[in-house]
Amino acid sequence: MALDGIVLNKVKKDLDKYLPIRINRIAESSKTEIIFNVHANGVRTNLVMSFHSNYNHLCLSDRKYATFNDPSTFVMVLRKYLINGFIYQIDQINYDRFFLMHVRARDELYDEKEYILSIELMGKYANLVLVDENSKIIDALKKIPPYENTRRTILPGARFTLPDDQHKNDPFSSYQPDMDTSLVAQLQGFSKTLEKEVRYRMKDRTYPEIIKEIEGSDSLYLTKINDSYEYHIIPLTHLELPYEQWPIQQGFDEVYYRNDETERIRNISDDLFKVVKRQIRHYDNKIAKLNDSLEDALHLENDKENGDLLYQYENLDQKGLKELEICGYEGQTKTIPLDPKLSVKANANKYYNAYQKKRKGKVYIEEQIAIAQEELTYLKALNEQLSIADYTDALDIKDELTRYGYLKNRSNKKQNKKKISLYRFTVDGYTVTFGKNNLQNSYLTFEYAKNDYTWFHAKGFHGCHLVVDSNQLNEKIIRICANVAAYYSQGRYSSSVPVDYCEIRNVKKIKDARPGFVSYRNHKTIYIDPYDDKDLTITAI
What we know:
Layout: H1 5-16, E1 21-30, E2 33-40, E3 43-50, E4 57-61, H2 73-82, E5 86-91, E6 98-106, E7 112-120, E8 127-131, E9 137-140, H3 183-186, H4 192-201, H5 207-216, E10 219-225, E11 228-232, E12 244-247, H6 248-297, H7 300-310, E13 323-327, E14 333-337, H8 344-387, H9 391-403, E15 423-427, E16 430-434, H10 438-448, E17 454-458, E18 466-468, H11 475-487, E19 497-503, E20 507-509, E21 518-520, E22 524-528, E23 539-540
Antiparallel strand pairs: 1-2, 1-5, 2-3, 3-4, 5-6, 6-7, 7-8, 8-9, 10-11, 10-12, 13-14, 15-16, 15-23, 16-18, 17-18, 17-19, 19-22, 20-21
Helix pairs in contact: 6-8, 6-9, 7-8
């Protein structure tokens, strides 16, 4: 992706149209992404700043961003100094990949103060630095001590300095570049992608003509390659692929939103995957050990028989025997191990005690195996749900793991009851709603849906619950719903997945079971080969 200084200059010019921009709220949606909710030119929107090493960018976005409930210390500092302030000027120096946003805000005494936000979008060095009116750093997203960079220290209290000047030439001046050497090394704001495009076009056009087109462009041109985009402010014809033309801000939003969403999900779900998989290993090991104990407990009748046979021995007070051969009930000779320190009678009592202990233990072990297997099923369901979770789903799963003690609640704040998200699409007048995790499934089935709704679930697989707002369904809607239920389940990569469906009135909660676990009756079954139905417009509600 070709985020270079020339593209950023177009972003700056577009943002200039919205000045002054009022900062209403500040939040973070991942460790590298900060969202300013702003009023810009009479419109309420989001100013999205991403400082990811690969996806760093800045744009205005009307999309809905889920944010952390517990903001970082840096975000709290930004709120303290910048909330209700106005961005009134944006500077870019020498087409470099950073902006200086000038903000005017009032402090606790209502005195007007000036601040600078240095938005540095330089790959792995991407950073956001808050600077006061005396050029002292207040705080930064990524702190850089002197031993990491002796020329530019980024720490609270340090003097703020600009990134190093690259000493390159202005591409929009009369400078004629040397085409035998790298344009990136000669020209401000040039990336390798733009150099490739310029050289490709110079087969039949002059450098000044190409630069004039770049200077006059106010659009972003996107070329899709597999699941990602290459882009610039002129079409990338050297890729020899179709391209789309977008307004600057919307184009950035289109390019980066899904990548940022993936990063947001990864930030939260990586830790959740580790917790869930660790617990799955724990219960796998626990069940194996319990089964070994159960195998031993199943020999309890042998202990009782040994005790009975020893009481038949003629000298019960005899000691010093390591074993005793006695005729068994079926006439065979049986060798019974003994403790030589004990008498034959004491050994018999020892076998009786072992029998009683194992008899009681067998019941307990079987109970524990059942509990462990239930937890294992539950955790495997969560593991599957995490694999298809978006950011909101991952937050729901995190809350669920905290509620059941798998995660510690690190916040002392009282948690407000969250609105549970669901997913919806419409087909031929039917409204179809589904959930993708346990909390969503439980809410959908037992609170949202009405008794005459039709309920779908992939049989024998962990997955989504789905309801249709009718009990009179034709074959088309049944197959569509069955496909969605199978696709958002553990069976999405299987074939002939059985999907059960019935009226909601036939679905019941299982007593004391985890959310999303149900029993049902009077159902029908359809078999489906799951696929991602691109014709459905699925929205979160």
